[in-house]
Write a structure and sequence with these properties.
Blueprint lengths: L1 E8 L7 H16 L2 E7 L11 E4 L8 H6 L4 H4 L4 H11 L5 E5 L7 H5 L9 E5 L4 H8 L5 H20 L5 E4 L2 H7 L6 E3 L21 E7 L3 H17 L5 E7 L2 H10 L3 E4 L6 H6 E6 L10 H7 L4 E4 H4 L11 E3 L2 H11 L3 H18 L5 H8 L2
Parallel strand pairs: 1-2, 1-4, 2-3, 4-5, 5-6, 6-7, 8-9, 8-11, 9-10, 11-12, 12-13
Helix pairs in contact: 1-16, 6-7, 9-14, 12-15
């Protein structure tokens, strides 16, 4: 079986959540297929070798406010919807793949060309692999009373229209968490959850103990304004309810100006923007936090915490629909104040936090290390 995998950028360097999930999906389809042709824009010159891969990294990428605003497509796919990319796609389609994977909303630029192409053996099965319930995210962003809110509202309308069109041609939708799948099931009749994979080293499980510093860790990336708002809102609550005995450490890529703002407004925080080796920080953390009020999808920080034996304290919105929402594996709360007060109380309760972290470690090792092509086979069967 031959697969065409259309994505935004080749996932060689895994420096973002989207690229990690794209690599995860690609690995699933490599297990399923005799060969996989990847149509994408160039990656970052990292190393990713696989005999069954054929890579066409020819796609160009165009941005511009007027271009995005007046395109009939949503912002993300409009950036790849160029005459050059369409010509490249038509050339690749001459190979008559058995399956076409449209990875991410970005790649729905290719839908119109695919459904209008004259395939010799009939149209291949189309799989739409989603990373988030994008329409839901735009709906939340559109509530902000600003020009950005207006653009988000327009983009939501375009996403709904495009995905409704796609639902008429897609054989199978894949989602990263059950909650996203439930939302998409309103228009896509057939879908399944494909877990992200963990590509880093797998250390043995290690209990937290009194020798472990009272460090609480927040991992993240703060280039997206929504992620920055999440952190600011949490820190405002932490200033009111947090314990002075606990060191709060934030690690993540961000604009330098945002780091300066956080250190100025919240001097009790240690904020590191660029860390060459995360392992010492993972080893010293007694608790890992997931504070996303908005963001959607699967928080890949969950796997960093779980695989490194770090007890997880999370907002319900950050783990809802995942394998980590159970109270057996995570401490889950509806409000920041509840999370912080519980963390103050549980930080020295090693029986409780180690029991949960052991269950989270077992969950991650069991379901997030190896591709499961049988799920795709069953999903594609009629």
């Amino acid at each position: 079986m031959n697969t065409l995998f259309i994505t935004r950028v080749f996932p060689d360097n895994l420096n973002s959540g989207d690229l990690i999930y794209t690599r995860s999906l690609l690995n699933h389809f490599l297990e399923l297929s005799d060969n996989v042709t990847v149509l994408c824009s160039p990656g970052n010159d990292g190393e990713y070798f696989e005999d069954k891969l054929i890579i066409h990294s020819d796609l160009e990428y165009q941005t511009g406010i007027l271009r995005e605003l007046f395109s009939p497509l949503p912002v993300l796919p409009s950036r790849l919807n160029t005459s050059s990319n369409i010509a490249t796609l038509k050339t690749v389609l001459k190979n008559n793949p058995d399956i076409i994977v449209i990875d991410h909303l970005f790649s729905l630029w290719a839908l119109n060309t695919i459904i209008n192409y004259d395939f010799k053996n009939g149209r291949p099965k189309i799989i739409y692999s989603t990373h988030n319930y994008e329409s839901g995210i735009r709906a939340i962003e559109s509530n902000v009373k600003s020009v950005r809110g207006i653009f988000s509202y327009i983009d939501k309308i375009k996403i709904d229209r495009l995905e409704k069109k796609a639902s008429r041609f897609v054989s199978l939708l894949t989602a990263i968490v059950k909650n996203d799948l439930d939302q998409y099931s309103k228009i896509f009749p057939k879908g399944l959850v494909i877990n992200p994979l963990y590509f880093k080293d797998i250390p043995p499980y290690k209990k937290r103990e009194a020798l472990t510093p009272k460090e609480v860790l927040i991992l993240g990336s703060f280039h997206w304004s929504t992620k920055r708002r999440n952190l600011i809102n949490f820190l405002k609550s932490y200033r009111k309810y947090g314990s002075s005995e606990i060191l709060l450490k934030v690690i993540g890529n961000s604009p330098e100006s945002f780091q300066v703002q956080i250190l100025r407004d919240f001097p009790f925080v240690q904020f590191l923007r660029n860390v060459d080796d995360l392992r010492p920080h993972l080893k010293s953390a007694r608790i890992g936090l997931l504070i996303d009020e908005v963001g959607g999808g699967f928080k890949l920080k969950l796997l960093d915490y779980a695989i490194n034996s770090i007890p997880i304290f999370a907002l319900n919105s950050a783990v809802n629909g995942s394998d980590f929402e159970s109270s057996d594996v995570s401490f889950v709360f509806d409000k920041y104040s509840e999370l912080i007060l519980s963390m103050n109380e549980e930080v020295d309760n090693f029986d409780n936090i180690n029991r949960a972290s052991k269950n989270a470690y077992s969950t991650a090792v069991a379901s997030y290390l190896v591709p499961n092509p049988s799920k795709l086979i069953n999903g594609l069967s009629d």
